[in-house]
Design goal:
With 309 residues, this protein is of the alpha/beta class. It contains eleven helices and ten strands.
């Protein structure tokens, strides 16, 4: 218990040091319009931690603390790690945080046909192509990381028809890559807008020929979230700064598929003592250890926002 109390005190300190997220001007705008329609989209591959709680509360603020504007989407495409137990705990944790949403929740695993149809549209327009190369083979073509990202290679026509037929006979399924040069030539310049109205020019070409259709399941993260946000009529996409660069890709896909472009709000992440963001990978402590503590992380998060707006 003493160890847990030390962790709780350290976590409380991290939250209290977080920078301003919702300015007084933005808070006033949210209040006047009753919030924007936005979403919280956790993956049920583990327990929520304080970083998730902080992110969920940012989304709750953008939604104007209005359950009708707050959508809960369960990003459960990773079927090998997703769990019904984690899904139920996500709901319990959000209720503990006094965050509520319009039901029913959206599950990506129930939208595979939608993703498949979008891939077929892009395939008909020859904007995507099958890639039968293995990860080892692809690694030979990868460029050095650019700003922390690996630029994906152009692999169209690298294998002969004979090689492709052989792999098909062995049951190897292709991934589907976006032909980035062709896509950009098709739509021209792409832009996205911050919640404050600032317009940003997207530079999706830095990502190369990204995978839109995975071998093991229909869609990649990029394609699925773009379709989900459009079909849910999301007005503001709210997410962490670590996903900000993905916005360039998403706005390109919106233009290719004729989908509306929402506004974007990227918020800072809760950073641990070691300088890295709190994450499931680093086994950050789950919210459950904070629920029975005399130090209420929930109240500290709320007070942090209330004091800075």
């Amino acid at each position: 218990m003493a160890d847990n109390l030390d962790i709780i005190q350290q976590t409380a300190s991290l939250i209290e040091k977080m920078p301003l997220v919702i300015s007084s001007e933005l808070h006033s705008k949210i209040s006047k319009m009753g919030g924007w329609r936005t979403r919280f989209a956790p993956s049920p591959t583990g327990l929520l931690h304080v970083g998730h709680a902080y992110a969920a509360y940012v989304v709750w603020q953008i939604a104007g603390s209005n359950p009708d504007k707050f959508l809960l989407r369960i990003d459960d495409l990773d079927y090998t790690r997703s769990s019904q137990t984690f899904i139920q705990q996500i709901k319990n944790d959000l209720n503990w945080l006094d965050i509520y949403w319009r039901e029913p929740e959206i599950y990506q695993s129930e939208r595979l046909v939608r993703y498949k149809n979008a891939l077929e549209i892009l395939q008909q327009e020859e904007l995507i192509y099958p890639c039968y190369l293995s990860r080892t083979e692809i690694s030979e073509f990868l460029s050095p990381p650019e700003s922390g990202l690996s630029k994906q290679p152009h692999t169209r026509n690298l294998l002969s028809n004979s090689q492709i037929n052989t792999r098909q006979k062995h049951g190897i399924k292709p991934a589907y890559r976006l032909d980035m040069s062709k896509a950009i030539n098709s739509v021209g310049d792409v832009f996205w807008q911050n919640i404050d109205g600032q317009v940003n020019k997207a530079v999706p070409e830095k990502f190369g020929d990204i995978i839109l259709g995975r071998r093991d399941i229909t869609a990649s993260y990029h394609l699925s979230v773009v379709l989900d946000d459009a079909d849910s009529n999301i007005e503001v996409v709210t997410r962490g700064n670590d996903l900000k660069q993905s916005t360039d890709i998403h706005c390109l896909l919106q233009k290719l598929l004729g989908l509306p472009s929402p506004s974007y709000f990227h918020h800072p992440l809760v950073i641990g003592k070691d300088g890295t963001k709190l994450s499931k990978t680093h086994k950050s402590m789950p919210l459950s250890i904070f629920k029975d503590s005399e130090i209420s992380i929930k109240n500290i998060i709320k007070e942090t926002f209330n004091q800075k707006t």
